[in-house]
Amino acid sequence: MAAAMNPDEMTRRFGDEVFGAAVPDIKADSVVLDIAMHPLQDVCAFGSIAGTVELWKYGRAPVQVASKALFKDSCRSLSFSADGNRLFAAGKDGSIVALDATGAEAARIPDAHSSAITRSLHFASVMLATGDEDGTVAVWDMRVSKPVMRFEGSARKRHLTDSVSAFAFSASPGPTLLATSTDGTLGVVNLRTARVTDRSDQLEDEHLSVAIMKGGRKVVTGTLEGGLCIFSWGKWGNMDDRYPGLPDSIERLVPVDGDCLLAGCGDGSVRLLQVQPNRDVLTLAELGDNSIEAMVPSRDGTLLALSAQDDVVTFVDTSSLAETAAAASPGVGAAAAAAAGGSSRARAAAAADSDDDDDDLDSDEDGDGLVGAAARAAAAARAAGRPLRGVSRGAAAGMGGSDFFSDM
Hints:
By secondary structure, the chain is mainly beta. It has a domain at 200-353: YVTN repeat-like/Quinoprotein amine dehydrogenase (Methylamine Dehydrogenase, Chain H). It is 12% helix and 38% strand. The protein has a 4-stranded antiparallel β-sheet, with no helix packed on it. Strands 2-3-4-5 form a 4-stranded antiparallel β-sheet, with no helix packed on it. β10 and β11 (127-132) form a beta hairpin. The longest helix has 21 residues, at 332-352.
């Protein structure tokens, strides 16, 4: 069984950074390609190049509770369901596997894609989006393990033509799936009409990551050449701003609040960036020379899990990052919040005008980042009648229950 690393070993990665390790590194059984964090408990999952999925309870003394060999080839992407009772794994062989609350395989779709799956995103309670190396995007209703829509990679019909690199979901003004591609475009899927409604102008660069910012008014993508492309919502043809400031690729993006985000970069660094005005605020972590492969916040936003093309998952304390982000943009946050409030009301009114009553597609919030995660965790803790446990104060006991995840 893989072992947790000693906290002292963290100095080889972080030195004297303001932010440090909240919990020890975890050494996995193989090179980690993706990470998923349980939405309700201190549990994480790793998908590996060997095709295994490892489940860990993280804390001061991390414990591996399961290791499942799901694929003959690599496990490319992982997503927990909103209630944490399902873990969806997507493989290079084009298959999708769901693990149930007992840790057993609940469903397998062996030929979900004809080429290797590159990215997945669980959203709106029961839906799963998957993308592959050919640019095909599929949306699945996981209650029946069947696709409800599929958009084959093609230059026609505004579809993507190369590997799908990232997804983002917005519930308003109407449920929308955003997909970036290495073909240099951003695709927009209207989930109510099941149509690809827009595709950005082709960039002479590759879009690798995507985040929804400014209360849903802006969409930001990270590129292979280290730039941020900034789009205004609804104006998808050409970007309206670009920040070319980073020296290497931007592999992953995680919003902190409406104005700042974290960028996981090809040089192994994680940087806090401010959007409009655009600037590099600080370096949160440096993991050596390997590219950031996965970067996922914990359920309460106080922890960031990272992997960098090796078998080590690093945890960084982000419990004070929201305050740092707010201090980085005094005045901007308040103005943006007021503007976002008006924008959100307008978008909500547009959503109310829709005749579609599919509540499943309207159930997720978007663009609120680590701040929103902390608020949701606090609300969930209050609803469950238990205190909110910060991971920086040590490992927390799991929630009560008889299912696999809660008994870890």
